[in-house]
Amino acid sequence: MTAKEKIDQLRAELHRHNYNYYVLNAPEISDKEFDDMMRELQDMEREHPEYQDENSPTMRVGSDLNKKLRKWFRGLTAGKAVHFLLALLWFGLTLFPLYFTVVSSLKLDNEIWDTMFQLPSIPQWENYFKAAETAGILSAIVNSVVISLGSVAIMIVCVMMSSYVIARRLIKRAKALNLYLLAALMIPLQGAIVPIVQMVGAVGGKNNFFVLMLIYVGLNISISSFILVGYIGGISREIDEAAAIDGCNLFQTIFRIIFPISMPGVATAAIVGFLNVYN
């Protein structure tokens, strides 16, 4: 068999396999066999460039991409297609406010509503410098980040210890304490603003970053405790016993043993807390 005949044979087999896979949903060969045939055809076409054809399977899609597409299309059902379209719609609706904000920041005032969906004709980069000079936006962002990170750091240290004590029932009425913290989730933030302001003013804590961090820690300790108590409760007590046998005290057990194991829960609590504080 000549090289051209071998190439034509491989192309015909690959075309037939694609038809059976996509149209009839009845593959004749496995994905590995398909990839092997595709590589063999690619090697022969490189050795004999005079026999290359734009309709060849190797010219239209690569082996790895073809494999991924075939797997994706094969598992695609009507339900998955609907879910994919809804997810795509939700992504667009979620992305639009960000797009509108970025595009509007580069427009003149009269262009924002006149050409809402269009890109700016001439990007006004000086708008960012004006915002930094007149509104002090850079210092505001730095303050927000510092307060958010500081609040999250204090909150994680405190909540990690309290959650371990509650989850392991190391004190009396641990369950009641957990319910007490959960009950705080039902108190709206607006109802606590006035008492907090009066209390901070009474102790002379205004214009103080650390006092503000403590307030944010108190406001977010309930949701963080809810997350970590549940996560630590799912960790086997045998790990604590093994740590005690190795000579770990309570703090070493919490921060050297339980803390790394609880990292997914800690990350979740930290992200939720950071977003709440920054907003």
Describe the model.
The protein has 279 residues and is an all-alpha fold. It has 14 helices and no strands. It has helices at 3-22, 31-47, 57-60, 63-74, 78-105, 109-114, 126-134, 137-167, 174-183, 190-202, 209-233, 237-245, 250-261, 263-278. Helix 1 packs antiparallel against helix 2 (31-47) and helix 8 (137-167) runs parallel beside helix 11 (209-233). The protein starts with a helix and ends with a helix.
Helicity, in percent?
Answer: over 70%
Instruction: Figure out the total of helices.
Output: 14
Low-pLDDT segments, ≥5 res? none
Number of strands: 0
* Rg (CA only): 31 Å
N-end to C-end Cα span = 72 Å
DSSP strand content: under 5%
Structural class: mainly alpha
Strand count, sense and closure of the main sheet? none
Mean pLDDT: 83
| Shape by Cα distribution | flat
Features:
mainly alpha, 279 residues, 14 helices, single chain
List the helices and strands and how they pair.
Layout: H1 3-22, H2 31-47, H3 57-60, H4 63-74, H5 78-105, H6 109-114, H7 126-134, H8 137-167, H9 174-183, H10 190-202, H11 209-233, H12 237-245, H13 250-261, H14 263-278
